[in-house]
Amino acid sequence: MVRLQPWQWVVLALPIASIVSFVLIAAGWQIHEWGVSWLWGVVTVLLVGWRWLLVRWTQPALRQVEDAIAQVNQELESSALAAEGESAGQGVIPGNAAASKINQAEAALQNVLQSAQSDRPFWEDWPMFWLRCQELVIAIAQIYNPDVKYPLLNIYIPQAYGLIRGTVDDMDQWMQKLSPALGQVTVGQAYQAYEVYRKLEPSARKVLQALGWAQWLLNPVAAIARRASWRYGSRANQQLLVNLSQLLREA
After folding, report:
1. I want to staple 8 with a disulfide (CB 3.0 to 4.6 A). Which of 4, 106, 125, 247 is the partner?
2. Cβ(51)–Cβ(237) under 8 Å?
3. Are 240 and 51 in contact (CB under 8 A)?
4. Over 90: is that where the pLDDT of 234 sits?
5. CA-wise closest residue to 222 among 26, 31, 23, 19
């Protein structure tokens, strides 16, 4: 696969960035010439409303999780009969018992997801995320082995290997799908980009603050609209991060 150098990405992006910048500057200049600079205030309010709609429509719903579980229920019901029969060392258990355990596992999943809705985004609190994963695994293990002292360890070695092998196979599929994008950046380059971001963030914040003060002189209407909607815009941005975190956590 061809890997482009950073300067090549810059060269490819430069024409598009130049065209977009020219259109924005020309539109802003023409709006100023027409004397309708108050339109920027309307645009600011519309963007805040758009973000709130995005927040509302992207709120994670447990119904989506239930739909996803329903799609694999047929496979679970057929495999649970054979798996539990092998684990017990006896004949296959009745189908209604397997379905009951599957329903209990679904309830355990929903309980963990509901408890996790108030957690911080998992990229900010990895220990809590892994704790929730552990809670789910332990809850399901107790459903299938309620009378065993160590239900989480009540699994045969071939079954444990099957879980590991299945996890590796799933990861291989993800890597095959994501390799065209992930193959363009090394871990070191990603970390260097993060370091550059941390260094430039304070300066960029000051520049944006200066532009905000300048807007009070150049376009007071837009500045008032931005100031009035700042609190709602910040809350919308925060809620979008919460929704994204919950969607990824559910996945």
Report:
1. 4
2. yes
3. yes
4. no
5. 31
- Amino acid identity at 2: V
Q: Give the whole-angstrom CA distance, residue 89 versus residue 75.
A: 22
Residue 245, both tokens: 């975190």
Q: Which amino acid does the sequence have at 161?
A: Y
Higher pLDDT: 20 or 182? It is: 20
∠ at Cα 43 (19, 34), nearest 5°? 75
CA–CA gap between residue 209 and residue 211 (Å, rounded)? 5
Q: In sequence order, what are the residues at sequence separation of 6 or more whose Cβ sits closer than 8 angstroms to the Cβ of residue 242?
A: 121
Q: What secondary structure, in 3-state letters, does the chain show?
A: CCCCCHHHHHHHHHHHHHHHHHHHHHHHHHHHHHCCCCHHHHHHHHHHHHHHHHHHHCCCCHHHHHHHHHHHHHHHHHHHHHHHHHHHCCCCCCHHHHHHHHHHHHHHHHHHHHHHCCCCCCCCCHHHHHHHHHHHHHHHHHHHCCCCCCHHHCCCHHHHHHHHHHHHHHHHHHHHHHHHHHCCCCHHHHHHHHHHHHHHHHHHHHHHHHHHHHHHHHCHHHHHHHHHCHHHHHHHHHHHHHHHHHHHHHC
User: How much of the chain, in percent, has pLDDT values that exceed 70?
Assistant: 83
Q: How many Å apart are CA 49 and CA 59, to the nearest integer?
A: 16
For the residues 45-49, what does the mean pLDDT come to?
83
> Looking at residue 61, what is its pLDDT?
57
Distance CA 179, CA 186 (A): 12
